């Protein structure tokens, strides 16, 4: 059965999921229970319809350019209401722990210029996400969901900022530590996302945005 990218019901919420690395796509498909896999412009895609949520995940490939092009592909063909760009990452803050899930408020492109130049035009290198708007809305859905994750999950939900770049990991020890915990962290991430997307949370957000 092929993936139907047309004639979705108007009331259905359409969600695009960008998975940069193969392991991210694999774990996403497994935990989200996605099916109907096929190729779209050379990239693997899989989907699921549940509770009037239509989710399509795409294996984008590593790097910002491939993620950007995969995102535009999903926008052009699928016309999603929401796009989640997700995956594993390192931490700049010592307060973050393994398995913490950071919902990004602002994303900074830090590696396009030297640090001294960054301060000259910071507004050109930052993108705010829908999380910024959600934090000012009532009811406080993100706070409620954070409490749910703490109660039911194996992770913490943190609202924070992201430094988006292509710099190398600082040292072999850190690289080994990240690789050792990568799969476990991704399992925690996609388990939380499954609850957020396919149950009441995303629907409630759609009602207030």
Report on the structure:
- This protein is of the alpha/beta class and 209 residues long.
- It has one domain (13-208): Nucleoside phosphorylase domain (Rossmann fold).
- It is 40% helix and 25% strand.
- The chain has seven helices and eight strands, in the order E-H-E-E-E-H-E-E-H-E-H-H-E-H-H.
- The strands form two sheets. A five-stranded mixed sheet has the order 2-3-4-1-5, with helices on both faces. Strands 7-6-8 form a three-stranded mixed sheet.
- The longest helix has 27 residues, at 172-198.
- The model is unreliable at 5-9 (pLDDT under 50).
In short:
This protein is α/β, with parallel strands linked by helices and 209 residues long. The protein has 7 helices and 8 strands, in the order βαβββαββαβααβαα. The protein has helices spanning 22-32, 64-78, 115-118, 130-134, 141-152, 172-198, 200-208, and strands at 13-19, 35-40, 43-50, 53-59, 82-86, 101-109, 126-128, 157-164.
Defining traits:
209 residues; alpha/beta; Rossmann fold; 5-stranded mixed beta sheet; 3-stranded mixed beta sheet; 8 strands; globular
Please describe the topology of this protein.
Blueprint (H helix, E strand, L loop, with lengths): L12 E7 L2 H11 L2 E6 L2 E8 L2 E7 L4 H15 L3 E5 L14 E9 L5 H4 L7 E3 L1 H5 L6 H12 L4 E8 L7 H27 L1 H9 L1
Parallel strand pairs: 1-4, 1-5, 6-8
Antiparallel strand pairs: 2-3, 3-4, 6-7
Helix pairs in contact: 1-6, 6-7
